Every structure is written in C-alpha cells, then in structure tokens.
Amino acid sequence: MQTRKVKTIYDLATLAGVSAGTVSRALAGKDVVNADTAERIRKLAQDHDFRPSAVARNLRTRKRGAIGVVIPLGHDRSQHISDPFFMTMIGCLADALTERGYDLILSRVIPDGPDWLEKIIASDRAEGLIIIGQSDQSAVLDRAARHYKPMVVWGGFSQGQIHCSIGTDNFRGGNLAASHLITAGCRRLAFFGNAQAIEIRQRLEGARAAVAETDGAVELAETPTHLAVELSGGEIAQFLDEADRLPDGIIAASDMVAISAIHVLTSRGISVPDQIRVIGYDDLPLARGMVPQLTTIRQDIPAGALQLVDCLLKRIDGTAAGSVILNPELIVRASA
C-alpha cells in the first residue's frame, strides 16, 4: 500500500491523529503540547521530509514576512520602474531586506484618488511599507502616517511633515550644482526638471538661492521636463529651439535628464563641456560610463536604502525612529 504523501500540516495531523493546531504548536516547539506527542509529530515530519511553508509559519506567528515597496507616480506618470534610479534603489533595498529575512512586494502606483495608500495599507499584505519618492503625494503620506506607523519614505524633508522620510538634503544638492557652474564661469543657467515633485522642487530652490547670491550677474531659466528619457529629450530640444540665447550651464534634476541633455547637445554639434557645461543628480553607475563622464550630485543610494530598512524595522518593532537627512556630495567629472 502506497503511503500518502504529506504536503501540508493537515496531512501530517491526519497521519498523527491530532489536530492541525497541535501539529503547528509541536513543530514550533511550544511546550503546551505533551512531550511524547510532540516528539512523535516531529519524528513523523522528519520521516516524511515535511517542512512547514514560510506562508504557514508566518500565518502562525502573525508575520507576513514581506515588506511593501511602493513607487507613487503622481507628478510624472510616464516614468517606469525600469528607470535606472528606481532599479538601483530597488536592488539595494532587496539586498538589505533579504539579509534581514524579508521578501519584497513591489508596486508602481498611479494615484487615482486620495485613498490609494489607504487601500494598500488595508490590504495587509506586508508588515510595513517603504515608499520611494514623495512625488506630489505628501498630503496623502501625512494622512496615512497619522495612524499607520510602519512606513518610511525616501524623499526630501519638509518642515511640518508628519511622515518619516529618509533622503538627501535636496536644497543643498541643488545649491552645490548651481554654485559649481557659477564658479566655473557660467552666467546663463537652465534647470531641467518637474518641480511638482518635492525633491526636485527643493533642488530648484537650492539652485535659485545660489543664483540670487550673484546679485543679478547670473540668469536661471526653469524648464519643466519629464524624467522619462523618451520624453525629456524632445522637451530639451524644444527649449533650445525657442531660447533667445543658449545657456552655458545646465542643471538637470536627475542623471537621466542630464544624459538626455548631453545627447541632444552633441547631436547639434554643441560641445560638452566646452560650450555648455552639464551637471546631473544621483550619481548612478552609468554616470561614470558616459562620454564625457557626468559631473553630478551624489546621493548615497546604498546607504540610503540601509537607512530606510533599519528605520522601518525599528518602527515595526515599536521603537521611535524619525526622519534622516543625508548630505549630498558634488562629484566633479568631465561634463562640467
């Protein structure tokens, strides 16, 4: 007679002649189960090469074993998860979470109303949430943070915000970028980026502050630009076509926008940096592979990912953990 294959706790319970709950408690080492019964159940599990699934184990302990990583795109719906910034951050988060025994549930969200985050929280699929980027959703994040504590956001810090954020000092980053170009002799600057996003708006404000210190000696043109490469190139080209005078320095809201700008300029025979200097933001790995190599403002993404995970796990455990502002760093290469 063929022995019945043991696939679930219920199969093992039937074989042992006990309840599924008794099997669960015995395999978890609970001392509420009679020692002889517990030993018999463990021996049966070993004989049948039965190991309880992670799902069953998590249900038993009320742990889901997963962290939700959410990318809200309210200000720029054209951006995709394949964007190199997102891929770099997600990779760092996945490494950090895996090392701590968690899985990652990834969601790209196009906000269709003020309750999108509440729906994610109500689904109860994860022990906590990491939000990558505030987009234009700061009010939604604040509203959720009033009652939902296991959540941390990658993004810029604003005075009075309720949600916990980890991110670079974007104002200082934008200021560093503009100051570098001004010091290099640039007098007509252009900023490319969509300031509806909090982080990008802070970078623009930092650039404005650096320009203001020149008492009118430097101009700053501000041009809304998508972050998606397939759109930003056309917008940059249109700006150049319509400009009365070309800029001699470009501040890009991201490395990808900077790369788009360099492609447009070189396609028109404009030399970078001899005629126009270009500086990006992020310091993604591909910034070093560009020709010319990209001058940029570095966000330490691996360190930021570790901070996000550590902060979230503290909040899950009920430990107080507040916002963290990381220092940006000017990385000077060939493009500016």
What's the short story on this structure?
The protein has 336 residues and is α/β, with parallel strands linked by helices. It has 12 helices and 12 strands.
Explain the overall architecture:
The protein has 336 residues and is α/β, with parallel strands linked by helices. It folds into three domains: 9-61, 434 Repressor (Amino-terminal Domain), CATH 1.10.260; 66-168 and 301-326, 3-Layer(aba) Sandwich (Rossmann fold); 170-298, Rossmann fold (3-Layer(aba) Sandwich), CATH 3.40.50. 42% of the residues lie in helices and 17% in strands. It is built from twelve helices and twelve strands. The chain has helices at residues 9-16, 20-27, 35-47, 54-61, 84-99, 116-123, 138-145, 170-183, 198-212, 229-242, 255-267, 301-316, and strands spanning 66-72, 103-109, 129-132, 151-154, 165-168, 188-192, 219-223, 249-252, 277-282, 295-298, 324-326, 329-331. A six-stranded parallel sheet has the order 2-1-3-4-5-11, covered by helices on one side. A six-stranded mixed sheet has the order 7-6-8-9-10-12, with helices on both faces. Strand 3, helix 7 (138-145) and strand 4 form a beta-alpha-beta unit. The longest helix is centred in the first third of the chain and has 16 residues, at 84-99. It is elongated, with a radius of gyration of 26 Å. It starts with 8 loop residues before the first helix and ends in a 5-residue tail after the last strand. Residues 58-62 have low confidence and may be disordered.
